[in-house]
Amino acid sequence: MSDLKSHPVGFIGLGIMGKPMARNLADLGFDVVVYNRSKDDIDALVSEGQQFTAASSPREVAEKTRYIITMLPDSQDVRDVVFGSGLLDAITADHLLIDMSTIAPATSVEVNAAMRERGGRALDAPVSGGDKGAIAGTLSIMVGGEAEDFQRAMPLFEAMGKTIVHVGGPGAGQTVKACNQIVVAINYAAVSEAL
């Protein structure tokens, strides 16, 4: 925890889920460097207190932090941020990228490989619980990646969720999330048929 609290945490993607997740980090005393395509969302958080700092690009987030959380709509958005924004150019051996978006497992594996090639590390950590869980800090978090990186990120996960499980190597978090979505869809279908 001391290592985490001594450095700001980056947060990229301040949508319905990302904004309350970033707030929960700040509420627990983390300094958070934020970036979003829509500047209004950045300004809204920065206006809330000194624990939020604006960044002008994903690369600047990486330059100012060691831990970078992304919460983006889909695989292409994650690819754009990681591969198309200059973020990778700022990655060092101290960096840990935690992608909490729900995306394709193959994209997570690709991001993990790119981070490792630069000397950094990555986790895929999609969530379940919706915006209510994001606001309350009670999300379920399914994490893929190396066990040591999972342990390193645990204080961040604990600020945002309650059920936090390491489910395997790179891409495993996304695979488990997909399985979870299948179960939910089947239950919806069963209820529909019963009605």
Kindly report the oligomeric state of this protein. Answer: single chain
Count of helices? Answer: 9
Shape: globular
Question: Total strand count, please?
Answer: 9
Provide the β-strand percentage band.
15-25%
Low-confidence stretches: none
Q: Give the strand order, joined by hyphens, for the main sheet.
A: 3-2-1-4-5-6
The span between the termini is: 50 Å
What about the largest sheet?
A: 6 strands, parallel
Give me the strand/helix succession.
HEHEHEHEHEHEEHEHEH
Q: What's the mean pLDDT score?
A: 94
* Helical fraction: 40-55%
C-alpha Rg, in Å? 16 Å
Question: SS-based structural class?
Answer: alpha/beta
Commentary on this structure:
By secondary structure, this protein is α/β, with parallel strands linked by helices. Helix content is 49%, strand content 20%. The chain is built from nine helices and nine strands. The chain has a six-stranded parallel beta sheet with strand order 3-2-1-4-5-6, sandwiched between helices. Strands 7-8-9 form a three-stranded mixed beta sheet. The protein is globular and about 55 Å long. The model has no long low-confidence stretch (mean pLDDT 94).
Compile the SSE list and pairings:
Blueprint: H1 2-5, E1 9-12, H2 18-27, E2 32-35, H3 39-46, E3 52-54, H4 58-64, E4 67-70, H5 75-84, E5 96-99, H6 105-117, E6 121-124, E7 127-128, H7 130-136, E8 139-144, H8 147-160, E9 161-168, H9 172-194
Parallel strand pairs: 1-2, 1-4, 2-3, 4-5, 5-6, 8-9
Antiparallel strand pairs: 7-8
